Amino acid sequence: MTQALHKPLVILSGCSGGGKSTLLLELARRGHTTFDEPGRAVVREQIRTGGTILPATDPVGFAKRCIAQAVVHFENAPADQISFCDRSIIDAISFLDHHKATSDAITATTRTYRYADNVFLTPPWREIFEADAERTHSFEEAVAEYERLAISFPHYGYRAHILPKIPVAQRADYVLQVLDDR
């Protein structure tokens, strides 16, 4: 049996277009180690190479690539300080659950790689949501994704904190305050 790896890697997740990447940039600006969203990296690579491992055409392949990238982020996160990631292994597994494509082997990664207990979810926020070349789904699809994630994180033993809809500097303060109070 593989021993679980625990790191103070804090997950920023939630609704697509809810401000995760902007918050991640603010935390990096404040000196924290950060890791970008695996899904966007996979989509960019597939668009650049003409590949088809995309959420709409190959959801299982896409999620597996996201998990692999999230594992790399996890393994590169410092063990002795808090760092932050935009999405996680749990996000990819929730996506697979939605497509009825999870397996015991994939779910086992949640026991092997354990993030910090506190997870921060960006709620749906229509006023800042924007579709782009990498985020092609609708706001309604993003809300459904958020609702799945709000169930998935507690299911896997994480404490989900809903981020308030406030300016990014205040959001970063909120995250850091919650982590100080742990």
From TrEMBL:
Upper lineage: Bacteria, Pseudomonadati, Pseudomonadota, Alphaproteobacteria, Hyphomicrobiales
Membrane-spanning intervals of the chain: none
Organism: Candidatus Phaeomarinibacter ectocarpi
Domain named NadR/Ttd14 AAA: residues: 10-171
InterPro entries membership: NadR/Ttd14_AAA_dom (IPR038727), P-loop_NTPase (IPR027417)
Protein name: NadR/Ttd14 AAA domain-containing protein
Domain of life per record: Bacteria
